[in-house]
Amino acid sequence: MSPVVSPLGVPNVPWCPSHIPPAVPNVPSEPIVPFCPQCPCVPCCPLAVRAVPNVPLPSPVSLCCPCCPHCPQCPQCPHCPRCPHCPCAVPAVPSVPNVPIVPDVPIVPSVPVLSLLSPLSPLSPLSPVSLLSPMSPVSPMSPLSLMSPMSPMSPVSPMSPLSLMSPVSPMSPLSPMSPVSPFVPIVPFVPIVPDVPRLAHGGAIATLIDTSLGTLALAVAGRVVTANLSIDYLAPVPLRSVLLLEAFLQRRQGRKLFLGCDLWDAEGTTLHAKATGLFIQQDPPKEAARGGDSGR
Ligand SMILES: CCCCCCCC/C=C\CCCCCCCC(=O)SCCNC(=O)CCNC(=O)[C@H](O)C(C)(C)COP(=O)(O)OP(=O)(O)OC[C@H]1O[C@@H](n2cnc3c(N)ncnc32)[C@H](O)[C@@H]1OP(=O)(O)O
Q: What is the pLDDT of residues 242-284, one digit of tens each?
């Protein structure tokens, strides 16, 4: 079998465990800080969205990562020792010339992504938990709790990975047939209950994948629902690992959008899961409908 290499060429970056708060209930969450998904400083900011090939570097970069106050201008980036969130010394990552980062699209890091899809939520319409977790937000079984990078007890934190999973605005003019879309969330899974289990829950991974593919489908075609989701779990996902999800549109047939994704570890060496999803466009624009659904 040929070695698995991420198409994005994710560098071999050590994970900084100091970013993860202890998985102890009732521990106050870290202060909420805005997150700059344009920050290429993965060691300082493991939530940073990785570079996307063939997408030009936004100029000027308007957002500045609070994890790295000098980013991206700082010559010490991406291993800035002044990063207040990264007290540990992280080896320098070889600079990768001509590797652009995500396009300068509107970012709403503090808006929980899933809340927009949750008209049935009995909870706050802004709560991302409302769709993800029929259980208590602080339930140990909550998939969101497993995935919150900042505080397992703060599933509604704007730092929730699920609120960071849309670097591409739905308004972004993505090419519907683009084989690789600039949608690359990086999601840390953290435990809420010490010791059990040590692996990320498959359902949480499915939620991550469904939401990621759904976000891409949404960016391409507007309102969609998942009709089919197929996941191959290839390798267990350890808790506290950082993941890279690469989603792409495979083809589009009328209302049907066939998407796929690969879920990698942060180094791009281990392929944890592969998935395909079928999303059905809801209420397509009239002109699109008139154009005929030749894919039926
Ligand atoms: C400014 C702020 C910016 C912030 C940025 C944030 C933005 C991001 C926001 C948020 C992103 C998050 C995204 C999350 C996404 C998650 C989505 C979900 O989880 S949705 C819940 C789970 N899904 C359901 O509940 C569906 C339930 N099922 C249905 O509603 C229907 O069955 C539906 C719509 C799927 C199909 O029903 P029909 O009547 O509309 O259409 P028919 O004719 O049956 O199917 C259309 C075509 O699809 C095929 N099809 C349907 N289901 C299929 C299946 N399971 N497998 C294969 N083909 C299927 C059919 O064979 C047909 O194909 P032929 O046109 O004939 O070629």
A: 888 999 999 999 999 999 999 998 888 999 999 999 999 998 6
Rg of the chain over Cα atoms, rounded to whole angstroms, equals 19
ipTM above 0.85, yes or no: yes
Q: Which two tokens stand for residue 189?
A: 């899974």
Ligand 1 atom index nearest CA of 227 = 35
| Residue 240 zone, left/alpha/beta (φ > 0; ψ -120 to 50; rest) | left
Amino acid type, 230: S
β-bridge partners, 257: 252, 279
- Ligand 1 geometric centre to CA of 210 (Å): 11
Is residue 48 within 8 A of residue 65, CB to CB? The reply is yes
Residue type, 262: D
Is 188:20 a contact under the CB 8 Å cutoff? yes
Q: Which two tokens stand for residue 17?
A: 């465990």
Cα distance between residue 295 and residue 257, in whole Å: 10
For the entire predicted model, the pTM comes to 0.50
Q: Whose C-alpha lies nearest to ligand 1, atom 51?
A: 227
From CA 287, how far away is CA 296, in angstroms rounded?
17
